[in-house]
Amino acid sequence: METRYAPTVGYVSNPLHIGILLLIALLLFGGKRLPEIGRSLGTGMREFKDSISGNPPPEPPQQLTPPETATPVAQPTERETV
Questions:
Q1: pTM of structure
Q2: Coil, strand, or helix at residue 9?
Q3: Is 46 within 8 Å of 38 (Cβ atoms)?
């Protein structure tokens, strides 16, 4: 009798395995760090894929700087700088 195996992705052959891995990651890194780790992993994968395919990476969004405040900054006096 021929045995058939379910298709696997690497060594993960069951959705339960993925759940266990996610639970371990949650315990190791905590809930606040997981989104940051996911973003950086996705950015790294995207940059790697773009470098392999030869596409230039997209320009990062420009940071908007807040306007200068109207509050004057006190300059040090001659006595304070000596």
A1: 0.43
A2: strand
A3: no
